[in-house]
Amino acid sequence: xxxxxxxxxxxxxLLDVIAHTTDARxxxxxxxxxxxDDGESVPEVAEQLHVSRQSVYNWLERFESRxxxxxxxxxxxxxxxxxxxxxxxxxxxxxxxxxxxDPRDLSYRSTVWTVxxxxxxxxxxxxxxxxxxxxxxALARLGIDWKRPRHRLxxxxxxWQQAKGx
Length: 166
Fold this sequence. Notes:
This protein has helices at 8-20, 24-37, 42-49, 53-65, 71-74, 91-98, 115-125, 132-141, 160-163. By secondary structure, the protein is an all-alpha fold. The longest helix is centred in the first third of the chain and has 14 residues, at 24-37.
């Protein structure tokens, strides 16, 4: 490192991380710190690791600022917001419990469950925001199939008598 040399204990720990880690990011950061301690410049280390100089400076600063952290976490990534948690697995038990009941029992004005109605149910009663596609996938995982009701009442075909043998 440019301003401060690594202690023997920290250097040994970094070499142990290099020998045993499976995380490529942690490995690169450990190599960068070792090479900086060996006297290489930040631009040289950045070129060897195919990263920007700013990344190397950020790794160095982060490593120094986390002195009170456990050593294994000093090289790791910070928590990030990332993609939100999916509702897969969360909505399955709710749908499985409700699908056999009549929607009218829960004050819905429908005789059958539909995907939009299930989305509304999950939002209102379970406080879970799920998309229609998530509900469809959950129903498929549960093995629940249904057809939409046809609003045609017993219309007979023209040849119904022939079908009955008449």
